[in-house]
Amino acid sequence: MYATAAALVGRPAAPTRIEAFIRQTQFERPTLVLDINQVEAQYQALAQGLGRARVHYAVKANPAREIVERLVRLGAHFDAASRGEIELCLSLGAAPEDISFGNTVKRPADIAFAYNVGIDLFAADAEEELEKIAEHAPGARVYIRLIVDASEADWPLSRKFGCARDKALALLGLARELGLDPVGFSFHVGSQTKRAEMWTATLDQIAQIWAEAQAAGFGLTLLNIGGGFPAFYGEEVQHPTAYAARVMELIHDRFGEVPEIMAEPGRGLVAEAGMIAAEVLLVSRKSDNDLHRWVYLDIGKFSGLAETMDEAIRYQFITDRDHEAHGPCILAGPSCDSADVLYEKRMVDLPQGLKAGDRMIIRSCGAYTSSYSSVGFNGFPPLDVVVI
Length: 388
What we know:
Blueprint: E1 8-9, H1 17-23, E2 31-34, H2 36-50, E3 54-58, H3 65-74, E4 77-80, H4 83-91, E5 99-101, H5 108-116, E6 121-124, H6 127-136, E7 141-145, H7 165-177, E8 181-186, H8 200-215, E9 222-224, E10 237-238, H9 240-255, E11 260-263, H10 267-270, E12 274-284, E13 293-297, E14 317-319, E15 326-332, E16 341-351, E17 359-362, E18 384-387
Parallel strand pairs: 2-18, 3-4, 3-11, 4-5, 6-7, 7-8, 8-9, 9-11, 13-15
Antiparallel strand pairs: 1-10, 2-12, 12-13, 12-17, 14-17, 15-16
């Protein structure tokens, strides 16, 4: 039924179009360069593997207008986390029926806004959220977000979102009592789940709850499998088509023919389509006998690289000195905040001759960089974005 090719994706053999553009361009400050054609290619690859599952792009991963506009043209659907993201999608031609309001914590006025513009699909994980939706979006379809207890992701999601198994059926029942249409469940396997087989334990868990709901007479029709589709950060990952196809195969084995399946790729769709042009500001040692260098960049946690928190996402770096001998170093950002250290527990191997003024290209930065970039912390401007 689904292709099961196990092709792996690693570092390109030749410089990409983005890398070539960065080398030919002078930047005054850190800049994210996005290749919109690469976004399209990744979308097509994921869509092919997902088959009949609908792709709801997680807009929070990168809300660049060019990305949303291209995906609208390709027929994508959208997962919006806020009124602002809904307005963005609508302004670029997305149909209201192609947008889901996937944040489980919503302002009542924003629920009403979404409902009034024609959005009819909402996420919830608590009684009060269902009550808000029933009041401001009467009769709307809702899916219940479930907590995932087992995850092999590089960045497992916390208990901030989702309800435990013992509340799932009660929330479906409450939704029905409130006049809503409880259509299904959603979950998130965890960000950067590198292999499709890592979904197995989570799908087993969700399938049990799904079966209990069906046995209780809820007649669920929608399974939202969330994100988790990986990008390349130095460790090989499956080709997106093979990965998505295998996930769909695992789902079919456990759920059978679910009428509607949604997927919400963010990182897996846009990460590899972007690189950041950065610069080395300082290379130093803390003492004369210090074994390790400190390398400071003009970009840090507060200006786009927030996902280095806990060193979960391991960005890859390209320099003009990559032919030189390398050695471990601690990598830090430019702000006057001691938390602005990117990699210290697991140091980064960088050229020994690296010095202030050297160019640094950071790979796979298309997701969660511009959207995480702060507005002026320490007076540093937010991350510039250029789309090619």
